[in-house]
Amino acid sequence: MVDTKLWSHLPADVCAVAALGDEDRIAHIRAKRWIDYPHAARVLWRLEELYVQPRSDRMENLLLLGRSGMGKTMLIRKFARQVTLDLGEPGIVRLHPVVVMLMPHDPTAPRFFTQLLRAIGVPSADSCEAIMPREATILRLLSEVGVKVIVIDELNSVLAGTARQQRCFLQLLRWLSNELRVALVGVGVPETRHALMSDDQLRSRFMHLELPDWQEGEPFTRFVTQLIWSLPLRAPSRVNGRRLTKLLLGRTGGITLGVCKVIERAAIAAIRSGQEHLDLSAFERDEVWDGVDPGLPPLSVARRTVRVRPG
Ligand SMILES: Nc1ncnc2c1ncn2[C@@H]1O[C@H](COP(=O)(O)OP(=O)(O)OP(=O)(O)O)[C@@H](O)[C@H]1O
Ligand SMILES: [Mg+2]
């Protein structure tokens, strides 16, 4: 029997994990976890505000921007989870007040609706244009599941379309917002802003919010400390010095993905070596930094060239 009181540096829920064997603890480190920070809390608060707005002819929408790897997708998933939890027990009809969909790479209406219907679990939504339900059916399906907010992740994919495809897509967004009276949340890298700029009506209805790159300061130190506390290492880590902050920010470019990746790798190495804690020396090993580059979104699979082709 392991005495969990030995690990008073850990929160109670992490103590239970710290009692597990090495491989289970490593699996826990590799799994995703949510760490709160002020910018994320502010975005969540704005999303909540959009969610509770009454349906009207002029819905407020939001464009959430941030560099690749800053944590946009994690944030909108957290918001969708929160809303679903608040709904309590699922009834006969599965409600989808918040629909999170992925913008298709090919920004055409059939592909967009396929993704949208897939996000609410409509099985007939195949990528075949011929069986695409009519607009009226789509509207009925969406209102039956009680959609209030549609989140379109990776909206920047619209920039890969021709100028004509982009225009048609913006018309489609306007139509959705007006007909369905739902709030739209676009999510993407900062260039996504250009996609909406060309449409006056949409531009004035989208509030812009940014998840900025991390900078030196209390919020970053707190984020790193909380992240390290959430990892089941059996000895207390000594990591709140300025040198570590500078190292992390300098080598990751202040991108959340890179920061989390190197800390997780260092923690796994600390378990394997038996050191069981992190200090500056844990970040001096080259392998901890593999693939992390301050100029690029680190280790991201979502990087793609954004190019506007003439219509
Ligand atoms: N609040 C958070 N708590 C813990 N880890 C986080 C948090 N936000 C982001 N991360 C880490 O950063 C990684 C990247 O997050 P995410 O995929 O949401 O970024 P993104 O902004 O959507 O990137 P992209 O634009 O490339 O899609 C996550 O896999 C996770 O490791
Ligand atoms: Mg994402």
TrEMBL record:
Residues 58-213 form the AAA+ ATPase domain. InterPro entries: AAA+_ATPase (IPR003593), P-loop_NTPase (IPR027417), TniB (IPR008868). This is TniB family protein.
